[in-house]
Give the backbone structure.
Amino acid sequence: MTKKNVKLNKGESDNLMPIIREFNKIAGAVNALLGQRVQSKERKISVMVSRIKRPDEKSSQIKVTTVEFTKNFLNKQRKKKKKGGDQSEWDDGFTEKRGFVI
């Protein structure tokens, strides 16, 4: 299926320009909102990563632990109310279940 390029005459292009300008304004606003959401998610990830315990200076080894996020566990975490302050929304469930470490 090929598309043919259609050339508009001056009258048609003049009629479409206000619509295109309005579309560009709306697209710019949507792009800005999505950019803000991305920055917000990046900040949350940065906070979660910064809370990971760094290895001791004496030891050059890092212990690796597997993490299993089951569907049930994730659903439970989403339903919980977010707590204010420094505490992460993920902290509560990790102490209850064996093998969950961040």
